[in-house]
């Protein structure tokens, strides 16, 4: 049986980097435990955090069995659990002085789904006949692999390559090329601007100045600025530099419980204008009736008390900061000075973004070689999408690897040593 | 800020029956507890079943904290948890002799999402230029309200009105009009045939003969037959007539944990050809990375042991059968013989499908009047979609209500009495 698919089916069921990554990740987690898992964005096992979720569950069972019953038995409204929406609005208002009510918050089945909804309600063929197709502008690629295949329309993304600042022998940082961004805004019908901050895959954190300039450009063009804050403040706050979180009525901020150690609950949070929130709730109703409510219920008291902020700042952030520092040092030991290599400055998130200038094979091929040696990484190619055809031959896009450092130190050490070894064999 | 949406946004964020229903339901459950909830498909609180889920959670916390940790901390593969997929395949193979492996099973974030995926990967604009748009054929409407707005393309559905068999003074049953179905297959490019069985909203169960004929028609046209089995066998088995479950490689069977009392976990299950399963896994990766895994983990041992079948047959089915019988009797008491009324024969699911021949207002207006008196039902109009324009004036489509009987007896009694009272005031 070989059935023809619709255009939607052909587009969204095609081979995608994110499918490969999630298959690799899930299989490593469930059926190939010997794999050194430095691919996906799975959070680390932090004993203190895991104990917190277990004790919260136990507390509900012991002291509030009715809450457990309601949690499992009832459909929430499509926008999310009203108590949780209220708590998030209040928590963020207190932390940052933003003027938010529960009507500015919606839940989705993970942050990935929030972006799928947002890209497609904003970008793609226009509702009005005669208008041109709206694009999602990515001001700086490499950008998150999970966006690449989310457009229902073809060529949903327009992306700008960065300015690369090289720092010493082994470090570099990407900056937004605002000339390229302004040119893209002129050349295309742009429906929204989107950035992840901290950036997945690079660990870059756009500066307050960059965000402010993007925000002004978005407002000037009457389009929203989407900031994917999956790793950002105030929770999980996996940030190693000082930054100011940004939100206004023209900003759509997406957050998640995943990097708090709860990806299994699939809980995304969107903070946006009331109009956008209503649209997302409609979409949830139509595509899935309601969200699962277990993550919201587990985390609710911590959001209400504000404890989620101290957990993020005192436990989660230092944990990953130390992991990041250790990983950087292990990388230095594994690659030495006989191979040319550079790593993006580590400003947040769970990754080393490794650049091998002059890499003798594609990063895709390197990924395959490493996988055979039980080391999973993500080839950099997948993060460079939406670029002009003129950039097809840009060597940089084939010379990078995303390496997750959230696993235990011995796994990261072995993995990096094997990477060094493979690079020397090329 | 009044932004223009894409065509996708305009279509899927429009007012929809399912949004209204889910908003009503969620608000009744969370902020308006005085409402008599006879609208949505929320399952009943069955103490024995609720105790089962609580004790399963407690058992995991006491005896397998590592399992709890992994459940919360890890992303599953996009297709679903490998252990759960294996268990479902094995359970269904044993029960019905179907030749299934884990490669024939995929998880989605609830059954609603499975249908959203399936309708749109099969129906809508063709991938190949020059081919006409594929339709989803509903052989018998009224059909599930939740499908109505799921087409990304306009006019996704082609539907056939039923043959109505009147039985005595107060009962009736819908049958598939196969002449209409064959005419629709000739007149349109049909991409798939879809039925819910038991049917939501009517409680009708298509006969084995009807299913077998639809299956042959689907195979003859080289298109799949989708059977939405959310209320069906072997779990939750809310069936009050003898039927034979149907699956073959050309059938896509969707199931759910919701009606087992776990809608809060959003767990849909699809049983289909390996090719279709791979497509659904791709779509899950792109749109949401992975599924939440809590429902799968809670239910896993019951699926492995087969206990889920006896739970369904010995606890869940008799519970709803009694509810259905009681509701029918309470309806008789509330409406008496001074109003003309008929109810669809009760063969499965949670609903009375009430038909008031000659109703003096639209069922939509009746819904509004009842809501003001704290009785929530669903107006019948929403379940009649995809019909020819010639059917716009068909009175029957404005004369029906879906009434959920899963709530406690006093709620159902009061609700039905208020319905009788409003009907007499018209």
Outline the structure in words.
Two copies of one chain form a homodimer. Chain A is of the alpha/beta class and 426 residues long. Chain A folds into two domains: 7-49 and 311-425, Type I PLP-dependent aspartate aminotransferase-like (Major domain) (Aspartate Aminotransferase, domain 2, 3-Layer(aba) Sandwich); 77-306, Aspartate Aminotransferase, domain 2. Chain A is built from 13 helices and 15 strands. Chain A has helices spanning 7-12, 17-30, 47-63, 65-73, 82-96, 111-122, 178-187, 208-220, 274-288, 294-305, 307-335, 363-372, 409-425, and strands spanning 36-37, 105-108, 135-138, 157-159, 163-167, 171-175, 190-196, 225-228, 251-256, 268-271, 342-344, 351-355, 375-376, 378-379, 400-404. In chain A, the strands form three sheets. Chain A has a seven-stranded mixed sheet, with helices on both faces. In chain A, strands 5-6-11-12-15-14 form a six-stranded mixed sheet. In chain A, helix 5 runs parallel beside helix 10. Chains A and B meet through helix 1, helix 2, helix 3, helix 4 and helix 6 of A and helix 1, helix 2, helix 3, helix 4 and helix 6 of B.
Provide the fold topology.
The structure is a homodimer of 426-residue chains.
Chain A: H1 7-12, H2 17-30, E1 36-37, H3 47-63, H4 65-73, H5 82-96, E2 105-108, H6 111-122, E3 135-138, E4 157-159, E5 163-167, E6 171-175, H7 178-187, E7 190-196, H8 208-220, E8 225-228, E9 251-256, E10 268-271, H9 274-288, H10 294-305, H11 307-335, E11 342-344, E12 351-355, H12 363-372, E13 375-376, E14 378-379, E15 400-404, H13 409-425
Parallel strand pairs in A: 1-13, 3-4, 3-7, 6-11, 7-8, 8-9
Antiparallel strand pairs in A: 2-10, 5-6, 9-10, 11-12, 12-15, 14-15
Helix pairs in contact in A: 3-4, 5-10, 11-13
